[in-house]
Amino acid sequence: MADRGITYVAWDEGIKEAERSALSAKKFGLKTCLIGSAYAGDVFDKFIMTEQELKCAAQKVFLYHLSPWAETLYMDSDTTVLGDLTFGFDMARRHGIAVTFAPACFVNFHWGLNRENLPPEVPDYNGGVIFFKRRHPKMRDFWRLLQKELERVDWADKRHNLVYNDQSMLSAVLYKKGLNPYVLPQNWNLRPQYGLVKGYGPVKIWHSRYPIPEDFDTQQSGRWTLVVKNIPKEGSWRARNRDNDKNRI
């Protein structure tokens, strides 16, 4: 079996959240690793301690190179694995990196990276679900380059921080370096709280702190719609699942 697994970067309360995500991944036979300053639990297969101080969440990319797996899925802690992720790892092995579009989809319109002189059509890739192969030619020095871009950020300036972060610069660096990632559909990184409430087929990763609706058949092969109520206070959802055979597109 390939040396592959999921890596999280978390601290404080984020560790409990990452543990819940890791437990969902274990249902599909996936190994997990936590990178952080301290950990006393036993949920993760590996723990890598770092003394590097992170001034904000965006600096978590400074630690991605520590992932112990030859093929890594970096995931944010607010995720739930709902299906087999083999294809995502396979695409990272083939293409170096596999990602999904962010709901806001255009990096300039989302983050306002006007100083980077990017074409307005450059897509915005989500930074919370990233498959990558460590020794693929595309990934040679990639995290170092991304870190270099982020090191010029004035983290004390909140306006600057909202523009330059791990997600916006991920998209910018991929474009600037001419690296074409393999792009997975929204089912691999479902963000319903940002408008991704209609889809087709099984959901692989639920990326939200809102609970999965009890009536949502996440493994169906047909079209579905999530109906939201009381957002953002409670995040109460219900699902409209449709007959698979009558809704082919």
What would you note in describing this structure?
With 249 residues, the protein is α/β, with parallel strands linked by helices. Helix content is 22%, strand content 26%. The protein contains six helices and 13 strands. Helix 1 links the parallel strand 1 and strand 2.
CATH architecture of the largest domain: Alpha-Beta Complex
Helix residue percentage:
10-25%
Broad structural category: alpha/beta
Count of individual beta strands: 13
Major beta sheet, specifics? 8 strands, mixed
CATH-assigned homologous superfamily of the largest domain = Spore Coat Polysaccharide Biosynthesis Protein SpsA, Chain A
As for the number of domains, it is 2
What is the tally of helical segments? Answer: 6
> Radius of gyration, Cα only, in angstroms?
18 Å
- How far apart, in Å, are the first and last alpha carbons? 36 Å
Write the layout of secondary structure elements.
Layout (H helix, E strand, L loop, with lengths): L3 E6 L3 H14 L4 E6 L9 E4 L21 E5 L3 E3 L4 H10 L1 E10 H5 L11 E3 L3 E5 L8 H10 L6 H6 L2 H11 L5 E3 L13 E3 L4 E3 L15 E7 L6 E6 L8
Parallel strand pairs: 1-2, 1-4, 2-3, 6-9
Antiparallel strand pairs: 4-8, 5-11, 6-7, 6-8, 10-12, 12-13
Helix pairs in contact: 4-6
Short note summarizing the structure:
This protein is α/β, with parallel strands linked by helices and 249 residues long. It is built from 6 helices and 13 strands. A hairpin with a 6-residue loop joins strand 12 and strand 13 (236-241).
